[in-house]
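User: We ran a pulldown and think these components assemble together. Before we commit to crystallization trials, I'd like a predicted model of the whole complex to look at. Sequences follow.
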Amino acid sequence: MEDFIKDIRAEFPILSTKVYGKELVYFDNGATTQKPRRVVEKIECGYYTTNSNIHRGVHYLSQRATEAHENARERVRRFLNAAQATEIVFTRGTTEAINLVAFSFGEAYCHQGDEILISVMEHHSNIVPWQMLCERKKMTLKVIPMNDQGELLQDEFQALLTPKVKLVAITHVSNVLGTVNPVGEMIRKAHAAGIPVLVDGAQSVPHLKVDVQALDADFYAFSAHKIYGPVGMGVLYGKAHFLNNMPPYQGGGEMIDQVHFEKTTFNVLPYKFEAGTPDFIGSTALAEALDFVDEIGLDRIANYEHRLLEYATEEMKKIDGMRFVGTAVDKSAVLSFLLGSIHPFDAGTLLDHLGIAVRTGHHCAQPLIDRLGIDGTVRASFAIYNTPEEVDLMVKALLRIKDMF
Amino acid sequence: MTINETQDAIIEEFQEFEDWMDKYQLLIDTGNSLEPIAEQYKQTQYLIEGCQSRVWLHADYVGGKVIFKAESDAVIVKGIVMLLIQVLSDRTPQEILDADLYFINTIGLKDHLSPTRANGLVSMVRQIRNYALAYKLKEN
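Assistant: Here's a predicted model for the assembly, 545 residues in total across the polymer chains.
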């Protein structure tokens, strides 16, 4: 284990947990990451020292809490390199961010007969909101296909960019395959056809540097809990001119300007999209998580995780009957696999009893699993605190499991 | 053997092992010994919802007793189904409906399988009881 990883691991008390008397190996980071002490302390500190409802309070605590919340927004802006903090909308997570766009963008820009273009490797959260929009507006959902390695077919994508398409919604990194999609290039192609693009960044932001202006993404969504932050907090980045033209998603407090029974006028960005009391403690904890990530450096994280992925791939390849699902050239820290004819449920259950936490099944991407012609996979997904020694433990466990069948 | 005698025999078999990996090995071996179900029963109508793996359960009513046949694509699940069949197949509907399935808790199946997996187990038991109830009502 490298020294700097040892130091990082020390920040995560949960990593020293024992499960069934064995050392925990946590390889379910694609589902959620563990939290460093400083993030949890930030939450505690928030409740102990500044807790007070934000924005409309005249008193001291409310002003401190408001300031912390808005500083967190600025922190997120800096993390994504958005042009302005008003383009950062706090949500409950990626799912809510996508639902917001599907509703509000749909209301403003979509009509009967139009199309939304997604890809075959989307998470259900980037499929179902669009299906609901298509149902509501009598539109059609089109799907970008992929090759057997798990790479989107760029020629097919180009051909699907017809004038009927109102929005392209694609994932940056596949949660099942680990494929890093060339979203920059895809955004350029879509823009050349006059079509805006939403990027699902849930699986990308913890692993690679994202610059929404360099990508020229129109919308970019991610979840705090997948990047060492708290649960129930997420981010929608949207270009101001789109957000300004979109109607509110939910009604309530904070999102209003004037309320009269005859007519209500809405607040400015980003508050127009933040109805009700926002998670002003969660936002500061997210900012703390982003500090944690940036202090290590996303380039360093990407480099380390890439080496870990390569090591795991090489070691697991040696196991007889190992089949990787998703072998794109450009991959992030996800390793989906099948071992011989062992069902993912069986493998996952036994790995669990050997202390190794992985995810099994369709990973909320059923259409992708259908496309692959399988019932599911076992998925090991890595984070900065994982080590080659943990990979060795998994390999050893898999060899033992293989002999049980 | 009665339902409870069969349960006690299963409990005894599982209590021989301390390590859960050995208990799983027993489940796997039990699962592998389950006769494959006829292809005609591997249809959606026989599929049990609520499991991470697919479980098919088919029932026949012969001479006042319910005969269950089942299969799963996951071997551990197949082992669990096999245990349920050992206990509950070839019994009268009333025996099935009256059965107290204490072996599930005693051998630790419920504790050792997370809620989503246990839900599969719960669904299986529910489906078995539904069949028994249906046959009982038909009889009356």
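The longest strand of chain B covers residues 55-62. That may be worth checking against your pulldown data before setting up trials.

User: Thanks, that helps.
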